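Student: I would love a firmer grasp of how sequence relates to backbone shape in proteins. Thank you; the sequence and its tokens follow:
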Amino acid sequence: MILAVLEQDVPGLTARVHAMDRGQQRVLSRAAAQLALRVIPVDDPRLGRAWAALGTTPVDPAISDHLQVLVDELDDEAAAAQIELDDILETGGTRDRQLALTARYERAFARARACEALAAALEPDLDDAVGGALYEANAALDHSPATIRALVEGVASGASDPVGDALRQLAPR
């Protein structure tokens, strides 16, 4: 279902993902989380436990819960920056303050989405895992359809480093 939303930015994505076998889809969900967190690093001990849980079934609910708390904290940070920015815009704050708050919001939002990509990859339902991880990774990357397409193609073709291949789509040309 969530792949249909991404389909607007990445035509053919849904068919490409559905053509993968279940093992490739699981790899793709994990690769999407890796991509997001390599581009948008988050230094928090709760991530270590979540990474370790990627290969386990079922995932300990406490790990998912701790990761969700982290996502909520980052979303709250983004919301606070947005509220402060809205106040500054209404009262005519300095341009520098507006830029600083915009950057704070964007950073917190991207970090939350990167962590949410990892949370999605932990989902037991494979459709939710792959769709959610790709969706959140795309949001963390500020909507980069070429990067998401490269990641999907890399996993589908059995590339040795699909995350690295996708990262090259982000490099300045």
Q: What stands out?
A: The two ends are 34 Å apart (CA to CA).
